[in-house]
Specification:
With about 400 residues, the chain is of the alpha/beta class. It has 13 helices and twelve strands. The radius of gyration is 22 Å and the shape is globular. Bound molecules: 5'-O-[(R)-(carboxyoxy)(hydroxy)phosphoryl]adenosine (KG4) and zinc ion.
């Protein structure tokens, strides 16, 4: 079963074409990510209108390239004009995207329908303007091809990203889970502890009350005059700090609160007060600050996760989202396997920590297999929650 997946929730335009051989085995036919980081850098963060413009511009060439790479792009012998009613449908869906309306009419008239079973699309959470571009593009394709569209939750995608296991060549496996599983999702927009009671049954245990972990990393980086995205740069500075002396001490917000919620804005404010009167930040100071910031983040994340592992008798722990690229956190979470005998910790391959299309293909495939998805999605949701199941409203 071949699925094409489109991800445009933030600042990467990504498309994957995946051939699912069985529930746990798949082959990647094409997997391309176009990052907009260089464009957003000068704004110190993602600039939504620019992100939308870039997605709009990139989607069609990326789509053609993906089909070609997957061996699914086949030209018609003669041009086949679309019917008037088909064009009207397309105009309705792409009424704000003239560029892709023109592109897709041209595509349908010149290329055959590829052998795909469904399209998976991120419909939230994320930047609404960005989400709409991918969503409408996918809607236009599925309407003319008359195949299924599977609206997919971006965060569920991050969970699946961590379960990808390489087999051979382009063949991969999805790791089988033992329940109850716990997932800690840490990205630029989210910090969530999710209990997975059985396949795709989610319960939110706690989340950040203010800034997400990645956001805190990015803000602290800015205070240290480091470029966006700051996470990797703060992390690099932290690893350079080898000194045992402790001159800086940052708070551990919510560490001992009797719940699973987080808060990171106080940590960023504490860093702000430390740097605000400094005329010049020495490299030593920056390194120690970055290191202590990472100590604080890690301590809070790991302690809260440990508490949930104990309380719910967790067998598998999945760490996902952009911040899971962080080496210090990866090491600290992997170490939990030593502390809890029966625990297995799943970390995403570094290639799949950030946003990608493959994770959307996987989450979409499982939703499709379970018949658990909205059959006729009409809009995107910037604040989409990871539902325990969509089954109730999928009819
Ligand atoms: O999941 P993601 O790619 O996009 C969102 O959905 O938000 O996460 C991006 C976030 C950014 O805040 C970035 O600074 C952070 O992940 N990040 C890191 C590292 N690599 C990326 N944070 C800490 N350490 C890293 N190595
Ligand atoms: Zn993400």
């Amino acid at each position: 079963m071949k699925i094409l997946a489109i991800e445009t929730s933030c600042d990467e335009t990504a498309i994957s074409v995946v051939d699912f051989k069985s529930k746990y085995k798949f082959e990647i036919l094409s997997d391309i990510i176009l990052s907009q980081i260089d464009i957003h850098k000068e704004y110190g963060g993602v600039f939504p209108a620019l992100a939308k413009r870039e997605h709009t511009k990139n989607l069609y060439p990326l789509f053609l390239k993906s089909l070609k790479k997957a061996g699914l792009l086949e030209k018609r012998k003669t041009i086949q004009k679309l019917e008037k009613k088909e064009i009207r449908k397309l105009e309705k869906i792409l009424n704000r995207d003239e560029e892709n309306l023109k592109n897709l009419i041209d595509f349908f008239e010149n290329y055959k329908k590829p052998k795909l079973s469904a399209l998976a699309i991120t419909y939230g959470p994320g930047l609404e303007m960005s989400l709409w571009t991918g969503f409408n593009f996918a809607k236009a394709l599925t309407t003319i091809w008359d195949i299924k569209i599977i609206p997919t939750n971006h965060m569920e995608g991050h969970i699946f990203s961590s379960l990808i296991k390489k087999e051979k060549g382009n063949n991969f496996q999805v790791s089988k889970l033992k329940y109850p599983t716990l997932s800690l999702l840490i990205s630029g927009g989210h910090t969530e502890l999710i209990l997975i009671e059985s396949e795709m049954k989610y319960k939110l245990l706690g989340q950040t009350l203010d800034d997400a972990v990645g956001e805190a990393y990015d803000k602290v980086a800015r205070l240290m005059n480091l470029e966006y995205p700051g996470g990797p740069k703060v992390s690099k500075l932290a690893t350079e700090w080898k000194n045992e002396n402790k001159n800086i001490s940052l708070p551990r917000p919510m560490l001992n609160k009797p719940n699973f919620d987080f808060s990171f804005s106080g940590l960023k404010t504490a860093v702000f007060y430390l740097v605000k009167d400094k005329k010049k930040m020495t490299q030593n100071f920056k390194q120690e600050l970055a290191s202590e910031f990472e100590n604080a983040v890690s301590e809070v994340l790991v302690k809260k996760t440990e508490k949930a592992i104990k309380k719910y008798g967790i067998k598998n722990l999945i760490i996902g989202g952009g911040v899971s690229a962080n080496d210090r956190l990866r090491k600290d979470f992997k170490n939990l396997e030593k502390k809890f005998q029966d625990l297995e910790v799943f970390l995403p391959n570094k290639k799949y920590t950030g946003d990608n299309g493959l994770m959307i293909a996987l989450a979409g495939f499982y939703r499709l297999k379970n018949g658990d998805y909205l059959k006729n999605p009409t809009k995107v949701f910037g604040n989409l929650k990871l539902k325990m199941t969509c089954r109730i409203n999928s009819k």
